[in-house]
Amino acid sequence: MSDRICIHSNGQMKPRLSARDLVSCCGPRGDGCNIGNAPDAWDYWKSNGIVTGGSFEEPTGCVPYPFPKCDHYIPSTGLKPCPKKAYPTPSCQRKCQVGYNKTYDEDKFYGASSYNVHKDEKDIMYEIMKNGPVEATFLLFVDFMYYKSGIYHTVTGGYLGRHMVRILGWGVENGVKYWLAANSFNEQWGENGYFRIQRGNNECGIEAEVIAGMPRI
């Protein structure tokens, strides 16, 4: 959403939308910190708007993220391991942090539309090229958690559930096609927080549930 606002405003608007505002206020189907529901999130952006908010470490904007960075499965320097249970979803406050220079309603950014992208490799590529990154829901397996580099495809480990990521590009390495995607496991995980996954064969269902939207500029 933030990327698309920047792209379609020709770089004039560069908000960092608040993850806390979305997960806290999206409603019961959004499911808060428990994975969430991608279509509901995009519909919420369109109907209710989302305010700005930085990270716990850089608490900028109206509603910053309340939880610190942590290690996801692969130990790294300086971060504590993530808790075994998800944090409880924060309450929906609908007000900006003390000292911020706008009201909650003044700070909102809205979507103009939300839609599913056809589950075809070329259609997804065209959507990214024309309008910006998309969100994909895919099947999560244990071996993904320990990904470090390269082009991922599941080899071993049990099914953990569904997971949502941002696909922002594609490429080919040694004849293998891949999607480039951003994960939410911090910069210490994978390829500086990003990963590559096989493209064109619906690996782990990555091409089956792709959603996007257009911002209201």
Automatic annotation (TrEMBL):
Signal peptide: none
Pfam family membership, one: Peptidase_C1
SMART domains for the chain: Pept_C1 (SM00645)
InterPro entries membership: Papain-like_cys_pep_sf, Peptidase_C1A, Peptidase_C1A_C
GO BP term (any one): proteolysis
GO MF annotation terms: cysteine-type peptidase activity
Domain Peptidase C1A papain C-terminal: from-to ranges: 1-214
CDD domains membership: Peptidase_C1A_CathepsinB (cd02620)
Family named by the database record: Belongs to the peptidase C1 family.
Protein name as annotated: Cathepsin B
